[in-house]
Amino acid sequence: MTEPRKTRSYALIGAAALLIGLWPIMIAFDIVHAPPDSIHAPRWVLAAAGGVFLLGGCMVFLQAHERLLDLLASALLSIFCALGVWASLFAPAESFSGGLFFLPHEMNVKIGRGVSGFGAMLTFACALYAFRLAARGRR
User: Fold this and answer.
1) Which domain holds residue 117?
2) Whole-prediction pTM value?
3) What is the structure's pLDDT at 4?
4) Cβ atoms of residues 98 and 110 within 8 Å
5) Measured distance CA(36)–CA(8) in Å, rounded
6) Percentage of the chain modeled with pLDDT above 90
7) Which domain-ending residue is among 64, 95, 112?
8) CB 95 within 8 A of CB 32
9) How many domains does the chain have?
């Protein structure tokens, strides 16, 4: 693949991520109206989910700036951590589905909360590492 085609495809991917991220953010801030019964999470969760896509789109466009990418990666991972904490502590039990068929639903919810909390801790550690890279630079 030639370099101009690569750049064009990166620009399309970045623009798509930015546009996808704007939709839940506009719903979260009530710029685009959504029926209240269709929203099953706090509005900040919607905004954070859109922010993940926005940051991802920005990261595609800023590939040449390592320190800025590390800072954006830290922000992205921090959002993932916040979403994991919300899912593990505050998400309604009805939002957990699937699980192990031979366990009762209550046990599957506890397992889901535990896995979400563990994922939140992992992403927090990764966010700290990305922030460290942004602050010190790569060596």
Assistant:
1) 65-139
2) 0.85
3) 64
4) no
5) 39
6) 73
7) 64
8) no
9) 2
